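YM 10:42: SigD protein sequence, as discussed on the call
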Amino acid sequence: MRGLIRARGRGLPPDLHEDILQEVLLAIHLKRHSWTPGHPVRPWLYAVARHKVVDAFRRRGHRLHLPLEDVAEVLAAEADPAPLAAHDADRMLGMIDARSAALVRAVRLEGHSTEDAARGLGLSAGAARVALHRAMKRLSELAERMK
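YM 10:58: structure's back
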């Protein structure tokens, strides 16, 4: 970490490097829950350190320009879906009636049109839109109560 901080913190007084290291270690301790097990730890650690160096420059009023090559692979990566999102969706849909759950799953989760979902459930398009609206409102209320 010291080497990374020294390399990224060129232009900062050398006595600040140890302070930044302490901030990095504290941030790692406080934010360790944000690291995703199964992913490499080094890029996560380097990102924490890089942000703390940037914070130090900001406090001193300097502008820092990072080369795009350093973050290009992160920018290009697709966002992974939340690992428990499907489980949470199934659990929430289990709290409403089966027809509404099927409608929400077809339209909102699978991307079918309201008309196609309505045909599959034996509803008119208008009735499906009303039922979908009510189901989404009910799910929203349930989610608020769970907070």
